Model the fold of this input.
Amino acid sequence: MKSQIEGFVLTPQGFMRGHLEHRGGRITDIVGVPVSESELRHGESALPLLLPGFVDLHVHGGGGFDMMEGGDSVQQIAGLHARHGTTAMLATTMTAPLAEIQQALAALAPACLERKPQTARLLGVHLEGPYINRAKLGAQPDFARTASLEEILALHALAPIKLITLAPELPGNLALISELRSAGFQVQIGHTQGSYEDGVAALASGAGSFTHLFNAMTPLHHREPGMVGAALAHARYAELIPDLLHVHEGAIRVALRAIPCLYCVTDSTSAAGMPDGQYKLGRHQVTKCMGGVRLPDGTLAGSSLTMDQALRNLVGLGLEIADASLRVSTYAADYMGLSERGRLVAGAWADLVVLDRQLQLQRVFVEGEEIDLA
Done:
């Protein structure tokens, strides 16, 4: 059965005033006339905005549940984020003893194969560690270990790993990057004490992005550019947490000018969508208060951000809605090679969000299924 949604539809060519049709989980047609963002701002305020559904490549938890818990936690997390407009996501693991990572992946595997109703599509796993530098753990527990292709392939056999964060300066990791890329994995640089030169070498070996840019990596100094300098000078893609706590507004502006396809992630914990209080992040106990999530020593430990708020934060910084949409949807999909997500075009999955002029969610569709936002 064909369904039709009217409004200002954001297509790759810009906004159109008209309607989007979808059937069988796919967009079948978009009909309308082009409008500029200026015309959009002064147009019919009763008509909603239709944007691509959000794509989040870094999700640890939400709704009081953590990805490392097993059971039906992933379904609860995917449901919470769907209600905030995320239509596709990567389940992100924590650094932990190998047995715990294996247990978590085994629990995640069924959700990677089949999407349950009223949840976001789980694209696979983002393995954030354990192949990271102990000097830059951030909020990761201290179970960093030496990487090997054999071990990663064994983990991949438990659940589909799509993205791996590692520190390229550690022994063997630089050579491993090209092997991982040949095996079909995306590789990101993160939780690293590496130098600018290490970052440039990692990019040359096939690393494609940087994990939560600026956080848990060597900073930019004019005589030692560090890993941040390598990203700003050479990266096409990098992820950033736009909760306005992890990264200062000014640094976000620098990254926006320097990195063409900077995209946003939540790095959300079980505290996302929940009131202030105590929550779990892997083995850690964390506290949500004053909009942030922290370890007992005050270290930021992921976030309570959702992607709809990320969109609003970007527009609040002065980005046009179309540009902000690229950074919460399209660029992440492009980075992962997902040509049928992160954009509103005929033939793509009917993943979309419907928002009012204050960018508050009115409706969410995941593969054509409308999500109950109540």
User: Anything to note?
Assistant: The longest strand covers residues 14-23. The two ends are 25 Å apart (CA to CA). The chain has a mean pLDDT of 96. Residues 95 and 129 are 5 Å apart (CA to CA).
